[in-house]
Design goal:
A hairpin with a 2-residue loop joins strand 17 and strand 18. The chain has 10 helices and 21 strands. It is globular and about 60 Å long. Helices cover 27% and strands 24% of the residues. With 399 residues, it is α+β, with helices and mostly antiparallel strands.
Amino acid sequence: MKRHTIEPRPGWQQTVEEQGLIYPLTRFPDGSLRPYWDESAYYEFSLPEVEALEEVVEELHAMCLAAAAHIVEHDRFADLGITDPRLASRIATSWRRRAELPSIYGRFDLRYDGTGPAKMLEYNADTPTSLVEAASPQWFWMEERFPGADQWNSLHERLVDAWKRQAPLLPPGPLHFVHSEGDELGEDLMTVAYLRETAQQAGIATEALSVEQIGWDRLSGRFVDGRLRFIRSCFKLYPWEWLTTDRFGPHVLNTLDNGGGSGTTCWIEPAWKMLLSNKALLAILWELYPGHPNLLAAYLDSPRELAASDGPGYVAKPLLGREGAGVTIHEPGSESAAARAEDEQPFCYQELAPLPDFDGNRVVLGAWVVEDEAAGLGIRESSGLITDEYARFLPHVIL
């Protein structure tokens, strides 16, 4: 794994925008615009590295499924902050009937520097983004800059194939693809539009609308779209913890399709993905697989030995959160273990493993899973130890 600098292509911004990346710049707090898509550098991997990472990702995915089974079997929903017995029951049913429910994709965030085992930082299994740039613009970048090279990137083909295989699980009628109008950058919009395109290429009839446009028909007790058609199936880039707690949350649970029932809505990703998109998963994995080379120590009750004077330090992560929100870093020997406001919301305390530093750039690997197979890689860089909304996306090649 190496980082190389390179001269960006002339007109790169227009090029990637035409390829679906309509958010190539990030606005910083000082009002300046800086590249989000950053092709002034790229990462090079060897084929054996990528093959080894693929095996790690698929092993981690299998371990996460085993952890989900453990949570359901041992009724450990409270560890995930899920205290509503009705919601827990719906999630458990969704898990037990998962073979009947469509589930498409997820993204692991990994710490890796090319010299040691990759370490799992978290699993974005419900509403992962950075898909468009990973699947399309970086592939075209490689074809233009390094013709004849390769890339860890079979995302598009695997997504189309996944929709083809899972189409029989969908109820009759169009598959609705929705995002929130609260997305100001267009990232959610384009992620959903891209996934809709892959479903259409698989032969599935689709419709697009926003979450805010979904209506509730009191007479039929069904969700409807803007044309008052029943929403029988819906891909939503909208977190389950929001979907089940907003004003329509009770209707979501009442009509949740956990296996083809009439009068219900089939949501993608399914409700059981709440078991994997929760940071408590990290602690349960460590409990089930202590010392695993691809895991970091993690706990729910306290940082334990991680906060000791001779410990490695730790990262406190809210159980639910995105783009690094609410995450705090506690260096080795930090005295602030007891100073966290964990009474305000539950946290997972994960061993501190500083992101690799390549010329002052902190890098995290986003490894994609489609169905149960590793499918591609996206790389983000940040200036600090936390990968937040100001991180940059860089392409990669296999040489």
